[in-house]
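Feature request, filed as a ticket because there's no other form

It would be nice if the structure record came with a short human-readable summary line next to the tokens. Right now we just get the raw output. Example of a typical job, pasted below so the devs can see what we mean:
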Amino acid sequence: MIATIGCGMVWQRTIAAWIAALACAACGGDDASGVDAGPGDGDAGADGGPPSGVTVEFVPLGANAQPASGQGPIELEDFRVDTITIQMHDLRLIGDTAPSGSLVLDSRAVQFPAAPTLRVSFEMAPPGLYSRLTFDVERTWAEETVPDGFEGQRLAVRVLGEAHIGNRDRRFEYVDDQRIGIDLGFDEEVAPGVPGSVVVELDLGEWFGDVDWRELDERGGGNKPMVIGMGEHPDIAELLRAGLSKAFEVRE
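Raw output as currently delivered:
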């Protein structure tokens, strides 16, 4: 009787072990890599290789359309820019292996000055030919962190600087919360396993080139800063919205 009970217990334990093994196999068990499968697994290139990744660098241009250093004010002939803050939404990188909607960054803020550079990365970008970058300059969403340069306000863009008017200077502030759509065309071939790089220039001369600072100064206000946007000088704000849409360009 004792021996019979012992064999039954062994048999029950064996069955239990088989059931446990089958259950483990069904659930996949522990992944040897220790990492869950990520969204990049579906983004391999046409050759089946890993994503190459693409970095987009934003470079402000100052006088004579030359790149600014990134550490101090940007001087132009008629004005100076001290800080730039731009809120971007729905950044889309589009190419032959990445149709619209497959490489999207929901939100990024670009601020100048920045150390060392202003960059956003599409880490899962597969190899291929890229031809478009689109994004919206748009007011900060209620659920996201407000960039430091906005000082607690939900804005799309804020620029602080100084206009050179005759023999004196006068501070200005451009603030806006209107949406501005940007669509940039270019050709950038990204090889398998080699990270790609796209440089987007922001030409401040193109952006502010249509502003008549002397005429704006003559509208009054003494030596107080000239505020443009958010109901102040709407005609100039409209000029700057149109200027911004033309000021972004991909470096060849």
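Something like this underneath would help us a lot:
Residues 1-48 have pLDDT under 50 and may be disordered.
Residues 42-250 form one domain.
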